[in-house]
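Continuing the batch. This is chain 6 of the set; chains 1 through 5 are on the previous pages. Same settings as before, nothing changed between runs. Recording input and output for traceability.
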Amino acid sequence: MTHRNSLPQGIEPNMISFSLGHPDRTSFPFADLETATMAAFKSQALAMFEYGPQQGEKRLITRIVDHLNRAEDLNLKYENLMILSGSTHGVDMVCRLFVGAGGGILLEAPTYKDTIHIFRDHGSKLHPVPMDEKGIILEAMTDIVERLSSEGNSPKLFYTIPNFQNPTGRTTTKDRREEILDLARRYDFIVLEDDVYRDIAFEGDLPPSYFALADGHGVLRIGSFSKTLAPGLRLGWLIGEPEVIDTCMNCGTTQMGGGANPFVSSILAQYLGSDKWEKNISRLRENYRNRRDIALSALERFMPTGVHWTVPSGGIFLWLTLPPSVSVYELQAASRPKGVVFSAGPGFYVDPDDGKFNLRLAYSFVAPDELEEGIRLLAETVEELSR
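Output for chain 6:
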């Protein structure tokens, strides 16, 4: 069963919650991180408590760069990467520095709800682009970009979650990525790929990142330890061309902040000095693949005709489409008394009128023995509402 002590905000005891895109609590490598913490204290305790370099802890940068180069056959240099206080820091900083108030942002429809929130905080103009199973629909994106350009309001940024997308679980194909990069070059907007789920791949080869396909030009890429270690560490990274990384390092908040979390950075630099991170990632893949398979099997067994869902090849999300006779808000209201909660589709759209027949199921936080029961109860409720 899921750990019930200190449940996340909004989750009640005895609830089966598909609403949280949180890691499995049993996956946290407590012992290894405790060992790394003690070793860091012995070797560099003073530095851990002081302000750090704006770019981030040097050993940590080097070890992340080495990991990415090995895993993806990249040619990253030390100058291509800076440490972030989680992926949220990266999204916020890029929007502030490279878009600004009133600047236009293209984004997937649907997309991660909290990035919509961040972009709105900055006063950005949001231009959602519809998706299909292969990613952004290029024709729709081209039409939007051409229209905005003709009006003198060319977009400054395209925000994408290219692998195992939140909320749909979809992965953008290589062909689509290349076509989008060509459009970005022609109309001079930045591609910001939020690639925090890439390591949680279950089968098949992933397409090269936008950053790899573009050889770094015009692309910024965000990664994070939140999904492959623990979100409480609050550390991630930003990859870009050296001059772009310099711009981010020299901005006011980075200069004033003294680097992202030197204390935890020192611990993770110690932890990444062995192969423990790669082993933890391998365990996560098996864990989440098992949960995905349980969830997909339960959907096949229990869901009535007319309900459709994505089949992700990695990550932690499923995206369901309900029949037109069942609104997601009706389903939400009827499921909660049965002890099942999930995220309603409209929250992932710029226009809240969209997504009324969609819902996101996150299977990472739900224990395996609860997955089937939760989906059975959801299916039962859909059937009741369809009558």
